[in-house]
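Quick illustration for those who missed Monday's session on complexes.
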Amino acid sequence: MNSNMNPGSRLLSTGLRRVLSSRVVAAMTTPHGVDRYLELFDPTWSLDQVRAEVTAVRRQTADSVTLSLRPNGNWQGFRAGQFLRLTVEIDGVRRTRCYSPANSVHAADGQIELTAKAHAGGFVSKFLRDAVRPGMVVSLSQAEGSFALPQQRPERVLLISGGSGITPVMAMLRTLCDEGHSGRITFLHYCRAASDLIYAEELAAIAARCPNVELLRAFADTEQCGELQGLFHREQLAAAVPDYAEAATFLCGPPGMMQAVRKVWAEDGIEQRLHLEHFTASPTPASEVIGSAGGEVRFARSERLAANNGATLLDQAEAAGLRPEAGCRMGICHTCTCRKLSGQVRDTRNGRLSDGGEADIQICVSVPVGTVTLDI
Ligand code: FES
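Prediction with FE2/S2 (inorganic) cluster bound:
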């Protein structure tokens, strides 16, 4: 257990936790549960849920926010690159999104650092940027995902990121630096301009301090002076990182950039060296979606009905006034999985069409093709 975790959690980690977990206490606290009573003493206390207090808020760029979070004793830690689900209550509704911790797994203070970029339509990220203050308490999941540094650290590492996709690879870089990794690391990051580069100062400091770390900043704005200019392309990569084929490569960024990188690795037959994390869904082309709109979306349990407008089933459920559980909204966390009773849906990540029978589907990445009935 980390010695820097929330002090209330240390208290709960003693015999008290065993007592509180007993059937007798569970019966006494029904229907609200033990946690509702613990919260009265300290909002971060919980028998089994991860909660964290916001200890610092800083803004590195105009549209991003970086939060330091002190988790309670239920947090089990993470592997550099993994993500977690953060839940906040906004206007009485619990909203969940996925973020990758950017801190080193060896951070001495035991805190989790999350950076969110507020983008158009980013309801939660805007809330985090504008409304979150030190002292607030948020809920977290345990860390998830297979995008992570392997236990056996690769000798040669290439980290490629774009925009806010920098966070998981920042965790990798910080972790490797803390471990005194001696192999070569290239950190290749794409963003619009220098003013958009999150962690700019720290990256420059690491590159200056560690002779084995090479920092390559690529700015789309050609007026700006980075080591590279423009968007990712094969010739640029080959010139800047000639030994890319030998490196264990970790990639996280917007869909277009990721597609371009994957294409190069696929053409070279070295896909097994490329590890990737999507932080936004790669949507099916609009023409396909709009072309398949029609019929109705039926929400069987709540007895509601909506004309199918071709949007994802999650969006259509919310537009119909329902509040299905959702997390990442990009097909990663499975929080939104629910039962399709009938009808065909298209997976927006790959364009695949389901059959018309019963199945569990992720409604954040499924659009109905004709009439669909959900058990919501
Ligand atoms: S909300 Fe995460 S998979 Fe749908």
